[in-house]
Amino acid sequence: MRAGPVQPVSTCLGWQYAVAHADPGLPPRRPVPPEPERLNPGWLAAQRAEENLIGRRAIGTAGGCVLAAAGVTLLGWAGWLNPALTALGAAAFATVGALGAASAWRGRQALAAALAAETRRVSAARAVQESELFGAQEEHARRFRAWQARQRAFCGQALWYPVALPAGIDRVDLAGGTLAGWSALLTTIALPRLAGGDEITVIDLSEGAIARDLVTLADGLRMSPLVWVLPADLPRFDLGVGLPAAATADILAAAVSADLTGAGGARPAGHDPAADHALLSRLLEVLGDGAPAARVTAGLRALAQVGDPRADVRAGLLTAAQLDRITALFGRGAADRVVIERAWALEARLRVLDRLGTDPVPVPRSGLRVVAVSPGGAFGSGVLAAYVTLALTHLLRHASPGRPWRHTVVLAGAQQLPGEVIDALAGACEVTRTGLVLGYRSIPAQVAHRLGRGNAALAVMRLGNAADARAASEQIGAQHRFVLSQFTDTVGASVTDTAGDSYSSTVGTAQSASVSRSRSQTAGRSRGRGQARSGAAPFAAATRSGSAETSESRGTSDTDSVTDGINSSTSWGVTTSRAIGLNESLGRTVQRSREFLVEPDELQRLPPSAVIISYASGPRRHVVLADANPAIAALPTVAVTGLDQARHPGQPAAGHPAGAAGAAGHPAGWRSGARQPAPNLGPPPEPPDWRRR
Q: Quick check: 432 pLDDT over 90?
C-alpha cells in the first residue's frame, strides 16, 4: 500500500503510555435458576393422614348406626320390639349414620379443595419464578454484551499516544540521556519530518554518532542523507566559505573566543574578544571578501612573524601586495609585540580551518544533513564546533522566515559551547521559525538557567550525576507521579549503547562524489545564479531542498518500507523486535512496570528511552512521561491522535489550531495509507545566496 502525499506534521518527542479503558474484569455470572416451587409431599401426606383420622371416626359412627338400625329393624320384625319403638330406634340410628356419612364426605371435599388451592398456589409461584428468571437472564445478556464491548475496547485499545509539541514552542532543551537514548529521540523527531518533506540539520558534538541510526534508515529509504565528518571532510565542507569580510571576521573572532571561554563560561584573564575582532577585521579588509581560511591564517602568520611569508606568497595564499599591506597594518614598538602575540594565538587556533572548502564535491539535494566534529579530544575541535555553529547561525539569520519547524536544527553536545553561542543560535532559529533541539549531557550552572527559557519545552532523560538529577528534578517539579510501562523497562534493559560507533562520510569518497555529480549537475540546470557552479556549495546547495522533488519522493514512500526500516536498520528497532519475539504479548497487552515520583534517584535510573517532557500550553504546564523508542511507531497499539484527543474526541489538541488534529497533524501521520491532498504552503524558504556580491 502506497502512502499519499504526507501532510505537515507536528514535532513528535515520543509516545505516552496510557490506559484509556480500564480492565472490565471477569464477565458477569449467569443467573442461577431457583429451586422450582412444587407440592410438598410431606404436607400432602400430613393432610391425607389428618383427613383419614377424622374421616375414620365419622365413617365408623355411620357404619355402627347402620348396623344398629338394621338390628332394631330385625328385632321389631321378629316381634321382640313393638313397632313404635322399632320405628323410632331405626329412624334414630339411621339419622345418626347419615350425619356421620355426611361428615366424612365433607372432609373429603375439604381435602380436595385444599389440594386444589395448594396446586394453584404452586403454579402461580412457579410462574413468578419463571418470569423473574427470564428477566434476570435478559439483564444478564445485556450486561454481558456491555462487558463484551468493554473487553473489546480494553483489548483493542491504543496503549501509546504521540506526544507532540503544541504550536508556539520554538525549542526543545534536552537534559541528560545516554547516547542510545539520544539516538532514539533524534530518530523519533526526525523521521516523520523527513517523510513529510521537511529538513533536518544535525550538528553532532557528542562523539557517539547519535544520528547513525537515522542516517542508515534515511539511506535505506532513498532520502540521500549527507554526512560530513570533521576535520577529515573539511575540504568538502563549505559552510561559511565566501562570506563578506565583516561576516567572516565576526565568525572567526567568535569561534576563537568560544574556544578560549569553553563550556564553563569563564574567559581567560587578559583576553579581550574585541581586540581579536579588530585585528581580524583589519586583516580581512586587506584580504577582501570571500577570503578562505587558509588565506586568513597566512595573513596571521605574516603578522605574527612566524616562518617565511614568501612561502605563502609562492603557495598562492597571499599576493606580494597583500603581504606588504599586512606588514604595514600596525606600527612598531610596544603595540607590535601585542599584535604578534595575538596574531600567533589566533593562527594557532584557526589553522585547523585551513582546509575548509578547498576541495568541494557536488552532492545531491538532501533533507538530512549531519555534521559531526570528531574526535572531541583533539586540539582544535572546540574551534571547529564553535565555527560550525556560528556559521550556521549566520546562514539562518539571513534566511526568510518559513513555516514553523519546516527546518529543524539539532545540536547534540551543546554543553561544550559557551552560553552566548547557544543564545545566538537560539535567537536566529526563533526569528526564522526554525525548530531547534539542544542536547545537554550535563547541567552545569550556565546550562541550568537556560533550560526551558522562552518558548521552549524541557525534555529530561536519564541523568547519572546526582547534582544534575537534583537540578532537573527542581526544574520539573517533584510532585508529579508517572506510570512506567513494562515495555519501556524491558526494551531499555536490553538495548546496548552506541558508544564507539562512528559515521561513514557520504561526501568523502570518490564513489559518493561520482554518484552525486550527475544528480547535482541535473539539478543544477534549474538553479539560479550563484548555484550553477557544480560543486561550489555542497552544504548550502544541499540546504535548498526543492519542494517538488522532495514531495514526490516522500509522497511515494512505502509505509511498510518505513516500518521494516525501523525494525531492521536501527538498533532500537532490532532490540524491540527481539524483545517482542521473546515475549509476544509485550507490545500488545497492558503491562505496567512501576510508579515513581520525579525525584533525583528516580531520574538516575530511568530507562534509556524514557523522557519526561515539560511544556506550557494554554493556562497550565503539561508534564508527560514518554518513550522515545522509534520502533513503537511499528506497534499495533499506537494511536493516531494524542491522549487528550482520545479522551475528548472532537476537540482540537491543546495548543493547536482547530483542524490541526487528526491524521494531518499527527506525528505518526507518515504511516497512514490514506491519500490526502497536501496543503499549498508554497516553496520552502531558501537561505540567502551569500556568494552573490
A: yes
How far, in Å, are 245, 279, 303, 307 from residue 326 at the CA level?
15, 11, 7, 15
The H helix count followed by the E strand count for the chain is 22, 13
Highest-scoring range by mean pLDDT, 60-74, 350-364, 526-540: 350-364
- What is the secondary structure of 198-232 as a DSSP string? -EEEEEE-SSS-TTHHHHHHHHHTT---EEEEETT
Give the dihedral of Cα atoms 137, 142, 148, 150; nearest 10 deg.
Answer: -140
The whole-angstrom separation of Cα 317 and Cα 287 is 10
Q: Which amino acid is at 313?
A: V
- The two beta strands, 620-627 and 610-617, are antiparallel
- Cβ atoms of 448 and 590 closer than 8 Å: no
Cell triple for residue 410? 539539532
The torsion angles phi and psi of 79, rounded to 5 degrees, stand at 90, 10
Give the global pTM: 0.76
Asked whether 330 and 207 are in contact (CB, 8 A), the reply is no
Q: Looking at 9-13, 565-569, 581-585, which range is the least confident one? A: 581-585
Per-residue pLDDT band for 587 (boundaries 50, 70, 90) equals: low
C-alpha to C-alpha distance for 497 and 668, rounded to whole angstroms: 26
In Å, what is the CA distance from 228 to each residue of 221, 371, 506, 533?
20, 5, 7, 20
Q: Reduce the DSSP state of residue 431 to 3 states and report it.
A: helix
CA distances from 290 to 168, 240, 241, 416 (A): 37, 9, 7, 29
Query: Contact 235/46 with Cβ under 8 angstroms?
Result: no
226-230, 465-469, 474-478: which has the minimum mean pLDDT?
474-478
Do the beta carbons of residue 24 and residue 147 sit within 8 Å?
yes
3-state helix, strand, coil in the chain (%, to 5): 50, 10, 40
What is the percent of the chain where pLDDT is above 70?
A: 79
Does residue 145 register a pLDDT over 90?
yes
Q: Hey, which residues does 532 pair with through a beta bridge?
A: none
Tell me how far apart the alpha carbons of residues 361 and 353 are, in angstroms, rounded to a whole number: 18
